[in-house]
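Sample 3 of the quickstart, ligand S-adenosylmethionine:
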Amino acid sequence: MTDFISINRTHWDVVTPGHVDSDFYDVESFKAGRDTIDSVEAELVGDVGGRSLLHLQCHFGLDTMSWTRRGASATGVDFSEVAIAAASSLATDLNLNTRFKVGNVLDLNLGEEFDLVFTSHGVLGWLPELRAWGETVARHLKPGGRLVLVDSHPVLWVFDDERIDGEMRIRYDYFSREALTFEETGSYANPDGPVTRTIERLHPMEDVLEALISAGLTITGFREYDHVGWQALPHMERDDDGWWRLPAGTPRIPLMFSVTATL
Ligand SMILES: C[S@@+](CC[C@H](N)C(=O)[O-])C[C@H]1O[C@@H](n2cnc3c(N)ncnc32)[C@H](O)[C@@H]1O
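Result:
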């Protein structure tokens, strides 16, 4: 567990500066007012005016600050001190009152409850287990408060990056729950970045839902999507709507999911 957290934290500390400078995150256009909340997130979360919102695994805070611009009283949490320092400095530059805090979502306790807990895109795979995460979500929601979770679908993660004879090949066991160690150059936002190690886990969908149910939440919505927010497999194509999909004509699989739940 400790290894899981310390290896991944080092990865995020190392890659974050390259992300802040990347075209992927395009901080200049964000400074000029670009909203980073996508169509799925916006529909599920709805109007945040006057609402308190906790953003878990906020990275360097663009979504958190977008929720502030949309009227929320927003707090972002991430375990990378480098990411939180970058987020706080951007918020200061932009004169936004978004709060940022360093914390591990497996044992976070801010001593506060929020109307909304939001977490999205590339979050659960970094966590060694989800029970403690579900309890963190529950601990930070007011009675009647809502969770909105949007993440890549675990079915997507069974596939190899390489295709064999043009066919997608299943490489990872959906049900094994084993820790997967990678050593790779760069990242989704900065392919030429430094070499780092990560430890990740494919959490089957049943574990995601079970973690929330056992923490006392009631699932109010579950959806699966044929698109995802970045090029998760090399042969994916970006459509005019900005989402990445398998090439037209390929049989579809779920690439992303969302869960809404209430306490
Ligand atoms: C892929 S990024 C999330 C990206 C974010 N949705 C965005 O668009 O910028 C994953 C984030 O999770 C954070 N993270 C990973 N494990 C964590 C943990 N146990 N507690 C808190 N943050 C964690 C990393 O530091 C990283 O900033």
